[in-house]
Design brief:
Elements (H helix, E strand, L loop, with lengths): L1 E6 L1 H18 L5 H13 L7 H6 L15 E6 L2 H18 L6 H16 L4
Antiparallel strand pairs: 1-2
Helix pairs in contact: 1-5, 2-4, 2-5, 4-5
Length: about 120
């Protein structure tokens, strides 16, 4: 399922770094959709164990703090139907976690990518 999203600068940088890492380590070229699919499946299996408020409030050194919340990167991700359902479930979960009335899919993708990055590099 193709879904258009306006991603944050932080999400864009994490996606670029992950794509580069996979290219260098595994010598394969992947799409951003493949990366989001893979990371979502991995994170979703343990989403209840993750301190999402801590993830949200952690600043990544690879992102300029002034541009981290820039949401100008528009892309279309080819996501599996099961991953879309997991993202939608996390949208509802995040409403409770963050006390919000609405959570966008792009925010869920950002939190998933950021959580994976922080855990992968032992930054949290």
């Amino acid at each position: 399922m193709r879904i258009q999203m306006r991603l944050s600068n932080e999400s864009e940088i994490i996606l670029k770094k992950e794509k580069e890492r996979i290219k260098n380590e595994e010598n394969i070229s992947v799409t951003y959709g493949w990366i989001v699919n893979t990371i979502t499946k991995k994170i979703y299996d343990r989403f209840e164990e993750i301190d999402w408020v801590k993830i949200k409030n952690t600043t990544l050194k690879l992102v300029d703090i002034n541009n981290a919340n820039n949401w100008e990167y528009i892309t279309t991700l080819n996501l599996e139907q099961s991953v879309v359902r997991e993202i939608e479930h996390l949208q509802n979960h995040f409403k409770t976690v963050f006390g919000a009335s609405r959570i966008h899919k792009a925010f869920v993708v950002r939190m998933i990518l950021k959580a994976d990055y922080l855990y992968k590099y032992d930054l949290i």
